[in-house]
Amino acid sequence: LLTAISIERCVSIICPLWYRCRRPQCLSAVVCALLWALSITVIAAVTSLCLLHEDEHCQMALISMYILNFLFFAPPMVISNVILFIKVLCGSKRRQPKRLYIVIFLTVLFFLIFGVPLSVWNFLQQFSYSLAPSQVVFLLACVNSSINPFIYFLVGSCRRHCSLVSLQVAFQRVFEE
Q: What secondary structure letter does DSSP report for 158?
């Protein structure tokens, strides 16, 4: 879903007229449904192969899943966020970037920093190779799982003066854009 959200935000910045006037209303829902279907299919295949104790097929399915993540999902997410970041930096200096763009950028950035190491570690485990202890990798994954509410709160509570407001107001400010 981060990939779909990142690409959609990037398209809304690069082609704002097309995005507002010509983009099919159901495009986001269809893309997300297809991504969910693909993910469920891959996970079901990997799970069934691994539960049947077919070690060689299980290992190949896991390797295929990690390659799919690295080659299909990660590059568009990274590229679209770099484009979004450059566009926001090069945009009008008078206007502050919209909070939603900041939230998406921070969410993807922290996902790449804290979430991707677990996938890399799992991928390398398939070849009996490890760069870091499992405790470090799992700690990073835990941080990744719990950091998004803090991003929403901090971005939603910062205006010109960084004042703390209730969590509900912070979420409302972020998502009303």
A: B
Contact between 108 and 83 (Cβ < 8 Å): no
For residue 1, being part of any structural domain is answered with no
- Both tokens assigned to 9: 């935000």
Amino acid code (one letter) for 68: L
What is the rounded distance in angstroms from the CA atom of residue 135 to the CA atom of residue 118?
10
- What is the rounded CA–CA span in Å between residue 66 and residue 123? 6
Q: What is the pLDDT of residues 72-130, one digit of tens each?
A: 888 888 888 788 777 777 765 555 567 767 777 788 888 888 888 888 888 888 888 87
CB atoms within 10 A of CB 136: 12
**pLDDT tens profile 161-172:** 444 556 566 666
Domain that holds residue 168: 135-176
Residue 2 forms part of a structural domain = no
